[in-house]
Amino acid sequence: MTLEVALSHRFGGFALEVDFTAPPGVTALFGRSGSGKSTVVNAVAGLLRPERGRIVVDGEVVLDSGAGRMLPAHRRRMGYVFQDGRLFPHLTVRQNLLYGRWFAPKGAGVPLDRIVDLLGIGTLLERRPGGLSGGEKQRVAIGRAILSNPRLLLMDEPLAALDEARKAEILPYLERLRDELSLPILYVSHSVAEVARLATTVVLLEAGRVVTAGAVGDVLADPAIAPVMGLREAGAVLTARLVAQEEDGLTRLDHAGGAIFLPRVMAPAGTEIRLRILARDVMLAVERPSGISALNILAGVVEEVRAGDGPGAMVRLRVGDEALLARITQRSARMLDLAPGRAVFAVLKAVSVAQGDVGGRG
Ligand SMILES: Nc1ncnc2c1ncn2[C@@H]1O[C@H](COP(=O)(O)OP(=O)(O)OP(=O)(O)O)[C@@H](O)[C@H]1O
């Protein structure tokens, strides 16, 4: 499934002018409040008629303002999950789910049992939404949307109304949808951690325009993008393979840049694990450090050094075939003579890779 979106729309002083293509997987629309994320999703869903635009889903033109074509929302075969779930309070969970199925062509789509199992909602079926936690409600809302057999799932900040614990509870389910159902998802978020964990592709919006769009690893490790992400949040994603559970409570992962040790990650050997490594948690050395407590040292090559407005600099490294971002001072960059092509070692503290940021491959 590919999604092509080109839109122009105006609301008073706000002008939206976007153009992007999304490959299969999870496409995160990321940006600050008011950057236009919901407007894009609403136009894709068919809830908003843009002044001009063309939207193609899986080869089908659902909107082409030039040709006067606008498929109504109910004929676009898209599932929509809102921030607040919007379940029917008088129906049980099972009835809410079956309501979704009602919109699907007969016999099509993923069976109810499979969805119930994937989302872990088997024990909730006879309950009503009023008695469910926020996280449970969202899982049911997601199940209902999937049962309508959509070809694209639209999720507008589906976790925003949940506390951190509930978010952490739902994220693995979203990963399973991405990985096991291969359901394409357009996912609105302003949380870098969520994007780093779930997204395949990131479309970064600012004031109604696409600042950049590309593979999650490339976008998150782009030094030019770091100020938009927020310097504290800037960081790359790496994918490493779990190789062993060690006796001292650490898990060993293999990456092309070197071994990575983390506090116990509960997954079988062979699992691909996505790690988020914040730029501020990476130190650089021009020789392999010894006599240092940090366990995780990856070999890489400098690709870009970008000075910030203050004394800081962002350095992008190539580590294997992935990118890693380090935030250091400009003084250190000069002292180490960092420039593109220079071989370096990135030192990561094991504790810097938070459990909440450990996710499946995607
Ligand atoms: N129906 C509308 N009428 C007038 N202005 C609107 C309407 N919908 C959105 N806007 C304006 O368009 C801009 C983009 O809004 P949009 O909801 O798409 O942003 P967003 O990135 O999704 O923001 P948030 O993260 O806060 O939901 C905002 O300035 C908003 O006030």
Automatic annotation (TrEMBL):
Keywords: ATP-binding, Cell inner membrane, Cell membrane, Membrane, Molybdenum, Nucleotide-binding, Translocase, Transport. It comes from the Bacteria. Residues 1-232 form the ABC transporter domain. SUPFAM superfamilies: MOP-like (SSF50331), P-loop containing nucleoside triphosphate hydrolases (SSF52540). The keyword Cell inner membrane applies. Residues 291-357 form the Mop domain. InterPro entries: AAA+_ATPase, ABC_transporter-like_ATP-bd, ABC_transporter-like_CS, Mo/tungstate-bd_C_term_dom, ModC_ABC_ATP-bd, Molybdenum_import_ModC, Mop_domain, P-loop_NTPase. The keyword GTP-binding does not apply. GO terms for molecular function: ATP binding. This is Molybdenum ABC transporter ATP-binding protein. It comes from Fuscovulum ytuae. The gene is modC.
